[in-house]
Amino acid sequence: MLADALPIAAPRLCPRCGTTTVSAVCRADSTATIDLHAFETADWQLAPGQIVAGKYRITAEIARGGHGTVYRAEHLLGLGTVALKLPGTESTDIIDLRRFFREAQVSARLTGTHTARVFDVGQTEQGALYLAMEYVDGPTLESVLRHLRGQDKVMSEAEATRIALDVLDGLAEAHAAGLVHRDLKPSNIAIRRSDGAVKLLDFGLALVRDSSLTPHERAMGTPHYMSPEQCVGGEVDRRADLYALGVILYRMVAGKLPFVGDGTMAVLWGHVHRPVPDVASHAQTPVTPPFAQVVMRALAKQPERRFESAAAMHAALLRGQTGPAELTDAALAANADAEPARWDAASTASASGVTPVVRPIARRRVAAWALAGAGIAAVALASWRATQGADQTPSRVQHTQAPVRPSSSGPAADGQKPASSQ
User: Fold this and answer.
1) Which of 133, 147, 220, 348 is deepest in the core (most CB within 10 A)?
2) Which pLDDT does position 331 carry in this prediction?
3) Is residue 183 annotated as part of the catalytic site, yes or no?
4) Which DSSP state fits 405?
């Protein structure tokens, strides 16, 4: 027990500096401290009508998962509705407690349009930790995709792109603040009912870059959306979030995940070792080559072969919306881990309904061949006409006009009168 390991006179912990104390406020940095005895015996279940921290009244449970439970709550002073999250209790290590508050502090600095804001963090009267976040009135992307699946439908490329662009805006802000989500998935993306605004949720597994509290990385996240480096417990950075978004984009247009299997280990093995299925061949809606290129690059096995940043991936998606729909040889070679993309007419038309595109290098070769052929043809035609003209002009003239006498100045041009006869 954590509290048993501490001196009897020091059952509280400062989450910022790690100091143990008996005071409710740390004397070193004025941070509210955590009651460790209460934490270890905490009740992590809340009921409608229950008051939390003297300022939130629980109205309903919203969602429950492996990493915690989220409740809808009303602020007692009439400041509106919030989403109150109680994280899971997988660990009671002091480092993990400090990480929870550190990540909450960083998340609270995210104020962008596409991130659900964190307003408050603390401890309930029963000892549980909580986060008070912006409440998004609308479905998660997970529920939307499941609904579409039940109707044998998928999202269009345009809609998938719109959602991804908003998610990338949110990720760009988080990454700039030194925060890597590490658990990006459809259930952590909400779509506001009133205006369709996309909001990033739940930085509960977030990694704070350059934090002294970061322990040796473990395989943390949701298996179907974990990057290869996450699967093996390797070093993780912002490109892991871009990989997860690549999986989400794949699912939005294909109606299925790129890697599935019997059990978690089979899924993790797929991310690490199996070739990435070609999204253009598996899409159940028409997708353009630029869109497919973005998805496949995001799903590269090696982080260095993905987009360098959320902003770079955002720009690539935007170019796909307005730029020419063609793939360069370099782009096709950008992800050697992927199955070869089949852009021939038969496979592309049958799989995604997209008209196949001739790549620029091939076009240049065809154009060169066509130009050379045209030149040869022109020379041949001119030669043929000259030959035909030499053989047929006299007889044609004989049949259309009277013979013409040559003038003293020289022979007349074909079809013209000599100057002396005018």
Assistant:
1) 133
2) 36
3) yes
4) P
Q: What was the pLDDT predicted at 269?
A: 94
Q: Output the average pLDDT for the chain.
A: 75
Q: Which of 19-33, 210-224, 390-404 has the highest mean pLDDT?
A: 19-33
Q: Is the per-residue pLDDT at 315 higher than 90?
A: yes
Q: Walk me through the domains of the chain, giving residue ranges and CATH numbers.
A: 1-41 (no CATH), 44-135 (3.30.200.20), 141-361 (1.10.510.10)
Query: Is the separation of the CB atoms in 277 and 337 below 8 Å?
Result: no
Contact status, residue 69 vs residue 86, Cβ threshold 8 Å:
yes
Coil, strand or helix at 44? coil
Distances (CA, A) of 69 to 131, 144, 154, 258: 11, 20, 29, 28
Task: Measure the CA–CA gap between 414 and 417, rounded to whole angstroms.
Answer: 9
The count of other CB atoms within 10 Å of the CB of residue 76 is 13
Hey, what are 269's tokens? 């093995």
Res 381 pLDDT > 60: no
The 3-state DSSP class for residue 263 equals coil
Contact by Cβ (8 Å): 373, 379: no
Residue with tokens 């997988």, as numbered in its chain: 90
Q: Read off φ and ψ for residue 127, nearest 5 degrees.
A: 100, -10
Q: Which of 169, 183, 241, 278 is catalytic?
A: 183
| Distant-in-sequence, close-in-space partners of 142: CB < 8 Å, separation ≥ 6 | 185, 186, 187, 189
Nearest to 34 by CA among 103, 118, 92: 92
CA distance 120 to 124: 12
Q: Is 244 left (phi over 0), alpha (psi -120 to 50) or beta?
A: alpha
User: Predicted confidence band at 123 (pLDDT cuts at 50, 70, 90)?
Assistant: confident
DSSP per-residue string spanning 80-144: -EEEEEEE--S---HHHHHHHHHHHHHHHT---TTBPPEEEEEE-TTS-EEEEEE---S-BHHHH
Residue 162: other Cβ atoms inside 10 A: 16
Query: CA angle, corner 181, sides to 179 and 186, nearest 5?
Result: 150
Q: Which helix (H) or strand (E) holds 376?
A: helix 360-400
Per the CB < 8 A criterion, the answer to whether 183 and 109 are in contact is no
* R_g over Cα of the chain: 34
The distance from CA 174 to its chain's CA centroid, rounded to whole angstroms, is: 14
